[in-house]
Amino acid sequence: MVRYLDTSLPPLSLGFIALGFLVPALISLPVVLNSLPTPSKPKRKPGLKAAPEGPLKDRALDIYPEDIHGPGAYAELPLGKVKYWIIGPEDGARVTLIHGFSIPSFVFTDVAKHLVSQGFRVLLYDLYGRGYSDAPDTTYDGTLYITQVALLLQHVGWDKTYVAGLSMGGGITGAFAATFPNLVNGKIAVIASAGAMQTTFTISQRIMTSPLVVSSGVSGLLSKGVQARRFKAQKAGTPAAQSVELVGIQMALLPGYPWALASSVRYGPLRGEEESFAKVGASDIKVLMIWGTEDSTVPFRYTGVLQKLMPQAELVTVEGAEHDVTITHAEVVGAALAKFFS
């Protein structure tokens, strides 16, 4: 008979061996923890309310006063304070308006008034890094923006809402509806919508939107030059001209604004949301598109791109309107939204 040597250890011995490894690890744990950096939230930069006093801030408050839509309030969200306004009758159908890339809720001023006149309850707010909202030191991607909407809705106690977004706000709207369909009241509207732009992100754009260049202020100076040229091309004193002026003012006054724009160009929902739109297209969510025929920022041809992704989408064409259609044709946009959401 062949006999094998039993080299296994009794359970008690294995316990002592395990304890021998565990005790030194537990003893050294405080040392390891003390050597690690303390967890912290991303740093944030304040909005217009905290901007330094002076003629530029005075001009900002002339164009975009903090009570432009009513008293408003601030929601303290994990990544920073968000300025929002709720206007209209308390029992009105709820509509959330999401502005675009560079101009805060100012762009929806007259559209919101029209919706209120039709009995709607309207929520407006400033995206992170714009207007009166804080600018967290983070990546400005679709996840950041749709999470901001979801948390804000929770803060104000809205369980469902219609949603309308302009330009990049349209990309946010599509991504939000695809990710949180339970928070959408069955209908969304996208106005001159980004989100599926088929442009090439050039090497020069990568350089100009890099953190190093943005922090140096070079991209901000160039942006202000572009905005100044656009401003001269428009009639001074009009809301459209004021919106362009507001871009330059934010660039000068808000330390977090340049990175919010640059990061949004790199990572935000200006492009790459085709999957979100397609998901909405395969759902029961009804869609309205509103577009100006003379839009050179997100050209009218993108209506075809989005209609392929969302076959159920209705289209309202605004003849002669450019990208600032919510300002120049607020009555037309407001009436289209009121009809669709009712």
Give helix and strand order, one letter per element, not per position.
HEHEEEHEEHEHEHHHHHHEHEHH
The CATH H-level superfamily is Alpha/Beta hydrolase fold, catalytic domain
Tell me, briefly, the overall form.
globular
The value of Rg in angstroms is 25 Å
Measured by DSSP, the beta-strand proportion falls in 15-25%
Tell me what the CATH architecture is. 3-Layer(aba) Sandwich
Quick one: CATH class? Alpha Beta
Low-confidence stretches: 203-209, 218-234
- How many individual β-strands? 10
InterPro entries: AB_hydrolase_1, AB_hydrolase_fold, AB_hydrolase_sf
Organism: Sistotremastrum suecicum HHB10207 ss-3
Keywords: Hydrolase, Membrane, Transmembrane, Transmembrane helix
GO molecular function: hydrolase activity
SSE diagram, text form:
Layout: H1 11-35, E1 44-45, H2 55-63, E2 73-77, E3 80-87, E4 94-98, H3 109-117, E5 121-125, E6 135-136, H4 142-156, E7 161-166, H5 168-179, E8 184-191, H6 203-208, H7 211-216, H8 218-232, H9 239-253, H10 257-267, H11 274-281, E9 286-292, H12 302-309, E10 314-318, H13 325-328, H14 330-341
Parallel strand pairs: 4-5, 4-7, 7-8, 8-9, 9-10
Antiparallel strand pairs: 1-6, 2-3, 3-5
Helix pairs in contact: 2-9, 3-14, 4-5, 5-11, 8-9
